[in-house]
Amino acid sequence: MAKYIYQHKNWTNFTWDDEALELIFGEVRHLQGKIAGQMSSLGFSIQEETRLATLTMDVVKSSEIEGELLNYNQVRSSIARRLGLESGGLVPSDRNVEGVVEMMLDATQNYLKPLTEDRLFGWHSALFPSGRSGMYKIEVGCYRTGEMQIVSGAMGKEKVHYEAVPVDAVKNEMDDFLEWFNQDTSRDLVLKAAIAHFWFIIIHPFDDGNGRIARAISDLLLSRADKSPERFYSMSSQILVERKRY
After folding, report:
1. Angstrom distance (rounded) from CA 236 to CA 219
2. Is 209 exposed, middle or buried (0-12, 13-18, 19+ CB in 10 A)?
3. Which residues have a Cβ under 8 Å from the Cβ of 131 and sit 6 or more positions away?
4. For 218, which DSSP code?
5. DSSP 3-state assignment of 84?
6. Which of 13, 71, 103, 167 is least buried, going by the fewest C-beta atoms within 10 A?
């Protein structure tokens, strides 16, 4: 008997309630238009500051979801340097900060580029420049070669919440995911952002960093939906607010 979704035949043939989503998407588009209208009425310097603040919060909150607290000023300075938004008041940034920023900016500023295996491996390498996650050495810049479980609880009393796709199926599952991601052009991009996030997390292709990469993938598609690299809202900030549900 199937325990996890990927154990079902044709598990990626997702279905949804069009009528229910139509109401939600109507509100989403209204809010997207409202934000765009408000931002266009502001001066260039205020737009730049808002863009910088939003990108900074997105990076900080995406890491906070995983329990990693990044220095806000380091993140802000790293983004500002890379985008040429300001030259004064910048502080040096740690390597791990630079890596997270590099991934997020590649996702949002290069949102029209295809998502490839090599690009994902680059993101993963950027997230873990030392080849370690905390004290633990991990496989970096490649798909995992071991099984993956999501576990909580004290040592000896662990509870397994989820066992990811078996390691011998990861490559094929990711090939299918990337083909869909790059070839499916008929899907509403907000819906596609949600599907892509869920699909990627189910595969859990990396030793670590899967949540942050999944959110970067969603941000890439939301940038496509907005037809702009300018970010004036943060998905990760809202996910953190609803962390238990997430």
Report:
1. 9
2. buried
3. 137, 138, 140
4. H
5. coil
6. 13
List of domains in the chain = 26-237 (1.10.3290.10)
Please tell me what DSSP assigns to residue 231: -
Only one residue has tokens 């390691």, namely: 167
Q: Is there a contact between 199 and 31 (Cβ–Cβ < 8 Å)?
A: no
pLDDT tens-digit readout, 101-124: 999 999 999 999 999 999 999 999
End-to-end CA distance of the chain: 26
Radius of gyration of the chain (CA): 19
How far apart CA 170 and CA 116 sit, in angstroms, is: 15
Which residue, chain included where needed, has tokens 């949540």?
211
pLDDT digits (tens, 9 = 90+) for 162-221: 999 999 999 999 999 999 999 999 899 999 999 999 999 999 999 999 999 999 999 999
* Pure H helices in the chain: 18-40, 44-65, 72-83, 95-109, 117-127, 167-183, 189-203, 210-226, 235-241
Report the C-alpha gap between 99 and 102 in whole angstroms. Answer: 5
